[in-house]
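Structure first, sequence second, as always.
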């Protein structure tokens, strides 16, 4: 006798479910075999001697800074671009490769086509798939001439003999089969297609933000398998393992660029500080290594593109006075004792030194992760040519316990007209 629900045998539904799962398994298996057998054509060309022009090398050096390549390929205290940086992911640690022109351990035997294949298809010289910790999901948009220029610059580096370190990934993530399945589901090589309805400036900004700048690597949400989706691009995401939140670049309630805010965005990317805001955490490193070295023309283009993305964001809701939360009394006492000296009695900050907390989007946005990181670990905006001696914040990990951190952050998010949710002790514990 079969169990029934609404007069229909449940065994029929179970059989349909099993057949559906089997179909999915067969489809993914077939697509994986297709991928492993070389679904995408291997980029190949005659192995002729590579001769780069000085203009190519100069352009490549600029592009390397635009892509912040040194951040992942230069270990602390190690040789420049020799790799060995451990990139922590939820699936284990991926180690960056040696990009110097060493023949045995680096790119010495690579051709421009080999390098282009890695950038465009995420495939190494020997044909194996690369892990997307190397952001080829964004680099696939890079033009061939820019790939060649970047390769030309890397060829001018001093060769360093440093074997690449094996990745420390758990099963099944360390297998090429699992990676092939991931690629079938989440990656397809592409190219940047300018929008003819947009200005050259807008298209240049889109090319930098979406391609070499790979902003989606941090500023886009990820699914359980670590993949981002274009539909959610730049809508904000928690940086894996680091517990920092890269705010949405689409929502003006977070870090979305408003049309009248383009000049301030350029200044922020150039110097690390702007009126009422500063770059901290992972973004500070991006400014130091990358964006401060870009031309004002390119920074302006990026800001124009980002402002267009954010132009359709909904306005922030206006709360009635009766609906505004009541600031924490305990938090106010902690703020007065530890914070007011720099940030002001009313959260007004100090121009040119300490950011205001009243009306600050970084304070009131939905995610409190960055506030927790700043209070516990402290931090400085980046030291740049435009701001060589930044004012910083001391860490309070040894001064305040988790409950006190939650109280003072709750007060800051609800005082002086701010109206954000309180921060719980659990949130503080989870984001350490």
């Amino acid at each position: 006798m079969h169990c029934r629900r609404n007069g229909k045998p449940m065994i029929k539904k179970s059989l349909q479910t099993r057949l559906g799962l089997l179909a999915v398994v067969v489809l993914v298996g077939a697509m994986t075999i297709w991928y492993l057998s070389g679904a995408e054509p291997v980029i190949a060309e005659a192995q002729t001697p590579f001769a780069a022009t000085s203009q190519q090398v100069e352009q490549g050096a600029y592009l390397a800074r635009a892509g912040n390549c040194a951040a992942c390929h230069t270990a602390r205290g190690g040789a420049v671009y020799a790799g060995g940086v451990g990139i922590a992911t939820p699936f284990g640690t991926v180690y960056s490769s040696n990009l110097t022109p060493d023949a045995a351990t680096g790119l010495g035997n690579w051709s421009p086509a080999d390098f282009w294949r890695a950038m465009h298809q995420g495939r190494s010289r020997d044909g194996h798939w690369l892990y997307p910790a190397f952001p080829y999901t964004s680099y696939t948009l890079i033009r061939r001439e820019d790939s060649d220029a970047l390769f030309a610059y890397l060829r001018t580096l001093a060769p360093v003999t440093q074997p690449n370190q094996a990745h420390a990934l758990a099963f099944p993530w360390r297998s090429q089969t699992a990676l092939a399945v991931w690629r079938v589901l989440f990656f397809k090589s592409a190219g940047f297609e300018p929008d003819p309805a947009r200005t050259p400036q807008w298209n240049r900004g889109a090319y930098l933000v979406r391609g070499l700048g790979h902003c989606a690597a941090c500023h886009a949400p990820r699914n359980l398998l670590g993949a981002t989706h274009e539909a959610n691009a730049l809508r904000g995401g928690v940086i894996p393992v680091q517990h920092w939140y890269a705010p949405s670049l689409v929502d003006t309630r977070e870090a979305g660029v408003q049309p009248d805010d383009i000049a301030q965005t350029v200044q922020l990317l150039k110097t690390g500080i702007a009126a009422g805001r500063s770059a901290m955490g992972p973004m500070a490193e991006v400014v130091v290594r990358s964006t401060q070295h870009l031309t004002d023309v390119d920074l302006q283009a990026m800001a124009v593109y980002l402002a267009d993305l954010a132009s359709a964001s909904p306005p922030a809701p206006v709360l009635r006075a009766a609906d505004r939360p009541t600031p924490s009394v305990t938090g106010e006492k902690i703020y007065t004792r530890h914070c007011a000296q720099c940030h002001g009695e009313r959260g007004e900050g100090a121009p040119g030194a300490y950011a205001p907390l009243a009306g600050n989007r970084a304070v009131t946005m939905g995610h409190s992760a960055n506030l927790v990181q700043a209070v516990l670990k402290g931090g400085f905006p980046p030291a740049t040519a435009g701001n060589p001696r930044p004012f910083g914040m001391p860490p309070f990990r040894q001064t305040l316990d988790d409950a006190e951190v939650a109280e003072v952050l709750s007060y800051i998010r609800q005082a002086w007209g701010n109206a954000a949710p309180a921060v719980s002790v659990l949130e503080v514990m989870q984001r350490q």
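Margin note: The CA atoms of residues 201 and 297 lie 9 Å apart.
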